[in-house]
Amino acid sequence: MKALQIELEKFAKLLKQKRITLGYNQANMGLTLGVLFGEVFSQTTICSFKALQLSFKSLCKLRPLLEKWVE
C-alpha cells in the first residue's frame, strides 16, 4: 500500500506539470477531461486528486482517465 501511495504522489506531480505545461488551470483541465471522456471534473476534484485528498477508491478510479490525459 505504501508503494502505491508513493506512485500516486509521483503521478499527481506529473499531472500538475503536464497541466501547467499545456497552460491549463484546474477548471479548464476538468472541462477538457469532460470533452475527452464525457464526464466533466470540477476544479475541486482536480485539486483534491493532486493533493491526494480523495478516498483511495476515488483516486484509483480517476487515475486511469487522468493517465490517458497525460499521454
TrEMBL record:
Q: Could you tell me the keywords of this UniProt record? A: DNA-binding, Homeobox, Nucleus, Phosphoprotein, Transcription, Transcription regulation
The protein's GO terms of the molecular function aspect are: DNA-binding transcription factor activity, RNA polymerase II-specific; RNA polymerase II cis-regulatory region sequence-specific DNA binding
Q: Which Pfam families match?
A: Pou
SUPFAM superfamilies the record matches: lambda repressor-like DNA-binding domains
Where it sits in the cell: the answer is: Nucleus
POU-specific domain boundaries: 1-71
GO CC annotations? nucleus
Keyword Iron in record: no
At the top level, the lineage of the source is Eukaryota
Principal location: nucleus
InterPro entries to which the protein is assigned, alphabetical: Lambda_DNA-bd_dom_sf (IPR010982), POU (IPR013847), POU_dom (IPR000327), POU_domain_TF (IPR050255)
Q: Provide the protein name.
A: POU-specific domain-containing protein
Q: List the taxonomic lineage.
A: Eukaryota, Metazoa, Chordata, Craniata, Vertebrata
